[in-house]
Amino acid sequence: MTLTAAAAAAAAVRPVLAAGLALPAGWVMAGWGRRVCDSDSHWLRGWVVAAVAAALAWVAVGLAGSWWEAVPFWILGVVSALLICCDLAVMRLPDPIMGWAYPVVLGTLTIAAGGSEQWLRLGRALLAGVLFLAFYLVNALVFPRGIYLGDVKFAGLIGAWLGWFGWLHLVWGALLAAILGGVVGLVLILLRRGGLRTEYPYGPMIAAGAWIAAVWLI
User: What is the residue extent of each domain of the chain?
Assistant: First the structure.
């Protein structure tokens, strides 16, 4: 097998392995989510979190260019699944989960930058995370009933991941999240399940916008 063929085979295996490992990880972390959120919502059932984790990990790791990148991408996919399910269950992105996610995701991303000698990419990712966090913080101050501090913190983490790919990914991630949020709000109004002041989880929109942007622009 040539080096090119071996690299292609490894790239094909990574997302499958990522999804397979995310299933038990999501199932186990669902219990943590229920305790932290103090909720027995169906969104926090083991199989739901596991399914979402497997899907996000599959896509994220499929975008990784190396095993170095695969590790932080996988962790982000799994923890994002738990945070999304928490937000859908109780409209909250818990600090205990976020406090664990930041050092682990950014720490493994730093290791990935060292292993693949991509320090400039890491610098851009960290700056993008700060800018994305600041952008959502301004939105939270202007629209306090739509964006919460949990969304702001989650945006910083997602922004770092998008920044790893490029600035265009960051911009489109924000735009797509806003579009998806508007569509959801409009659907709620049309179905007469809400109005202009109806609150709904925004964390899933941030994640969906990021994943769509990453896949679309890769």
Answer: 1-117, 119-218
